[in-house]
């Protein structure tokens, strides 16, 4: 059990009012999470006491800044079941996923120019190779692979989605001996469906393919153990898991990071630089060019400490109750269709829906007028919307601070949406 | 329902979002423009035929929220068969209104907007301004093509 009132007291923003004095009901955690004061305080403390350039300079404050930066890496890595040197900072999951895609591209280009480094050959792509993604993906885990395929001559294939909004197991056979990369989401940011990672990883491993997991939604809502899941790479964003914006992380198995060519180059990631050539640092520094987001790392550290203290098992159990309440509540509003599984099993409290005859923007506007914040649009996932027969949707997503009363307020708001837009005119 | 929503969704907007005046496709258009609102994927196509200094016919097709659809419908009602100068002026006037943060224009201008004055409240919501203007961006582009 989690003490929801105590948790809520930690989130200053939840106190505010919107739209002429309405109490904010924040159901947009899937887009970005609100921050507990512990995270805000950690960032503030860093700037007030510890701010200096990391991994350079020998003065006292620089030492402390470097310590804070690396301690954050260890804490975040541990939070997702990884070792500290398997975790690379990125500005967000999008950058982390691009880091992997561009690693493959750079390995391919290096091979064409006869300048491969040791171990890079495994990342070289050629015509006839296949990259497999899924129809559920956020654009961040789709577009980089489309681009990589187009630039290397590899073919992009995908696993489809069932009417219920889950990956279609009948399509798992698309994973075969030509598959070199399999990029897939751990949990959909539209349908909320949780992916059976073990089965997909087993198939990928049998095919000799690299696995890349988008853990953006899952790392914020479920206990995640990347070693146990057995994926090769995984990316997630800090801002979705109570941490500041501007920082995310890429996990890579150590031996893969050691061989993957860098994405961004410049300062901080080099050993020896001459006018002709450069040698690179070992990972994770090899992938961290330029001045890094150090205060944000301190905030990320505080965020995973906070989540650990709440307990991810307890949080996930709380969220599952909220999911059930959301689904039960929506089921009682006529003319509202959930885009995703109808039961709370293997599903996050990320619930996209359509209100028949009312555009998502208009749904969101009337909810907003009651102080209820939801996301409207395609949530950076156009293909899955198209698959489910809509162009856009509204989406309610819960966080660690969400109460059952807030879910009820949201359901009440849905009834209001229907009455305002004249569902009574026979468009039920 | 709170007043704010009734202010935003004026009856004329709700009526036009359902009536959808001028929805359709022209067989031979002099100008045609497709516009997308990337945040929600809403889209519209506006087609025009010109004849003797007039916007002989304007037609539109699209999908989107009540604000964007009503704006297109009212555009058709006000401009179909009108002088091109009126089309240009009304477009500029409507853009001025939508960038006014919800403030009414001078009385004469506000009157000149006719049914479009119902969108005054929409301009208070920055996220919705693009919805209201999507069709008018398409009209402007289609007219420019037709005159080229």
UniProtKB/TrEMBL annotation, chain A:
Catalyzes the removal of elemental sulfur and selenium atoms from L-cysteine, L-cystine, L-selenocysteine, and L-selenocystine to produce L-alanine. The keyword Transferase applies. PANTHER family: CYSTEINE DESULFURASE, CYSTEINE DESULFURASE 1, CHLOROPLASTIC. NCBIfam families: sufS. Its cofactor is pyridoxal 5'-phosphate. This is Cysteine desulfurase. Residues 25-410 form the Aminotransferase class V domain. Coiled coil: none annotated. Belongs to the class-V pyridoxal-phosphate-dependent aminotransferase family. Csd subfamily.
From TrEMBL, chain B:
It holds the Pfam family NifU_N. InterPro entries: NIF_FeS_clus_asmbl_NifU_N. This is Iron-sulfur cluster assembly scaffold protein NifU. One of its GO terms (molecular function) is iron-sulfur cluster binding. NCBIfam families: SUF_scaf_2. The gene is nifU. It comes from the Bacteria. Gene3D superfamilies: 3.90.1010.10. Coiled coil: none annotated. GO terms for biological process: iron-sulfur cluster assembly. Residues 9-131 form the NIF system FeS cluster assembly NifU N-terminal domain.
